Each structure stands twice: as structure tokens, then as C-alpha cells.
């Protein structure tokens, strides 16, 4: 149902029924119009946000963004073996970190939340300074694992280290320089969606947002493999 709702809303955006800058109907209005649950609506909006079609402004609403063409990525033939290894790690992360996000939402403390916030702020500042975002990116995922209160989640993330981030393993799949800022901002918007769900202790939405975030990385890598 979530996929069907995403398709319906995406079509309204791409056909310009809703123009860039338009405010989407409220969650309650979408629930009534499409006869779905609030959970389905939230997951659909999260997917649209992850796709860069909308953005949520806290306390105001969700607004349509100008649709952007998908960037093309390629792999050097010598990197194909590594790319399959990274894909395997991403599949592990989807299983592991989806549940991690749900548990973090249920168990996090204010101190955990503060450390996540600092990681996201550092990420944003590094984008503005054209500095590496790998450290803050990893720290964000690390702090979510810590927030579960289960040391084994944190130990697994720490063991994997920054190699869990595809852009540290496969240089040629990085976004072209002229699109890098937009790409990193999109990544951090996905992070913000996860953070917001954890902050309001919404375990289901935190799981959905984390799954979408990691699935985006997996699908981008798969497309690069197919192109190669």
C-alpha cells in the first residue's frame, strides 16, 4: 500500500498537479483521500523525501521540490569485485540497522539524541566547507547503535567501521563534483528523517526511514553494477 501511495503522489508531482513550492495536503487529508493508514502515509512521504521530491519543514508542512534527474554512476571493471562486497555489507546493514533504529527510538536518552544531533550538524557544516562527511556520517549511525542500550549492536557497527559507507570503498561511484553538494544534502535529509522519528520515539517510522536510507545506497550501487 505504501508503494502504491508513493506512485500516486509521485505522479501528481511529476505531472505538475502540484508545482514546486506547493504545500502537500496534511497527513490526515491524505489518509481520508486515499483510504490508507497514517503509518502508510508517513512511510510514503518518507520515501518521497528520500527521493528528493519533497521536503518537510518542521511545524509547517511538506512541500514539493523541483524534480531532479537521477545521476548516472559507473564502476571501473577492477572495482566490480569490491562492489559486490559492498553490496553484501549493505544487505547486512539493512537487516541490522533497520531494527537498530527501531530500538533506538524506543530506548534513546536525551544524551543519545544530543550526540546524534551533533553528528548531523557536523555533517551539514562539512558539506558547506567542502570537507569530508565520512566521519559525521559514521558517527550518526554509531550513535543510533549506542542508543539501543545493547552493546552488541554498537560493537558490530564499530567492527565494520567507516567501510560500511560505499563512497569510502568505491571512488569511481562517487557523485560527479558538480552534483556532490546536492547528493550530500539529500543524504543528510534522509538522516534527519531518521533522527526526527527517533526523537519522537516513533519506532515504526524510524525503521522505515532507516530502511529507505540504506536501500537508496544499495539501489544506486546495483545500477552502477548493471551499467558496468
Explain this structure to me?
The protein is mainly α. The chain folds into 2 domains: 2-64, Winged helix-like DNA-binding domain superfamily/Winged helix DNA-binding domain (Arc Repressor Mutant, subunit A, Orthogonal Bundle); 77-227, Four Helix Bundle (Hemerythrin (Met), subunit A) (Up-down Bundle). The protein has 9 helices and 2 strands; from the N terminus they run H-H-H-E-E-H-H-H-H-H-H. Helix 4 packs parallel to helix 8 (180-199) and helix 6 packs antiparallel against helix 7 (151-160). The radius of gyration is 18 Å and the shape is globular.
Structural class: mainly alpha
Query: What is the C-alpha radius of gyration, as a whole number of Å?
Result: 18 Å
The number of distinct β-strands equals: 2
Biggest β-sheet: strands ordered side by side in the sheet: 1-2
Q: Count the DSSP helices.
A: 9
According to CATH, the homologous superfamily of the largest domain is GntR ligand-binding domain-like
CATH architecture heading of the largest domain: Up-down Bundle
Q: Spell the H/E element sequence.
A: HHHEEHHHHHH
The amount of helix comes to 55-70%
What count of structural domains?
Answer: 2
Taken from the alpha-carbon principal axes, the silhouette is globular
CATH topology-level name of the largest domain: Four Helix Bundle (Hemerythrin (Met), subunit A)
In CATH's first tier, which class of the largest domain applies?
Mainly Alpha
Question: What's the N-to-C terminus distance?
Answer: 33 Å
- Strand percentage lies at under 5%
Strand count, sense and barrel status of the largest sheet are: 2 strands, antiparallel
Q: How confident overall, as mean pLDDT? A: 83
Detail the poorly predicted runs.
Answer: 69-75
Amino acid at each position: 500500500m505504501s508503494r502504491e501511495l508513493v506512485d500516486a503522489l509521485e505522479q501528481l508531482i511529476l505531472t505538475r498537479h502540484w508545482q514546486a513550492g506547493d504545500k502537500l495536503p496534511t497527513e490526515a487529508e491524505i489518509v481520508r483521500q486515499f483510504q490508507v493508514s497514517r503509518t502508510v502515509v508517513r512511510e510514503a512521504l518518507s520515501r518521497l523525501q528520500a527521493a528528493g521530491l519533497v521536503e518537510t519543514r518542521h511545524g509547517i508542512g511538506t512541500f514539493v521540490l523541483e524534480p531532479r534527474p537521477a545521476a548516472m554512476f559507473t564502476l571501473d571493471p577492477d572495482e566490480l569485485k569490491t562492489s559486490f562486497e559492498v553490496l553484501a555489507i549493505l544487505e547486512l546493514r539493512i537487516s541490522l540497522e533497520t531494527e537498530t533504529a527501531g530500538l533506538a527510538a524506543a530506548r534513546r536518552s536525551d544524551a543519545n539524541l544530543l550526540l546524534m544531533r551533533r553528528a548531523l550538524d557536523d555533517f551539514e557544516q562539512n558539506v558547506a566547507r567542502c570537507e569530508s562527511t565520512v566521519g559525521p556520517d559514521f558517527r550518526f549511525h554509531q550513535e543510533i547503535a549506542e542508543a539501543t542500550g545493547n552493546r552488541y549492536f554498537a560493537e558490530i557497527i564499530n567492527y565494520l567501521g567507516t567501510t560500511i559507507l560505499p563512497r569510502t570503498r568505491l571512488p569511481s561511484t562517487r557523485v560527479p563534483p558538480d552534483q556532490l553538494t546536492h547528493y550530500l544534502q539529500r543524504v543528510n535529509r534522509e538522516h534527519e528523517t531518521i533522527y526526527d522519528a527517533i526523537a519522537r520515539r516513533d519506532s515504526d517510522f524510524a525503521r522505515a526511514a532507516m530502511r529507505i536510507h540504506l536501500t537508496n545506497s544499495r539501489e544506486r550501487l546495483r545500477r552502477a553494477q548493471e551499467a558496468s
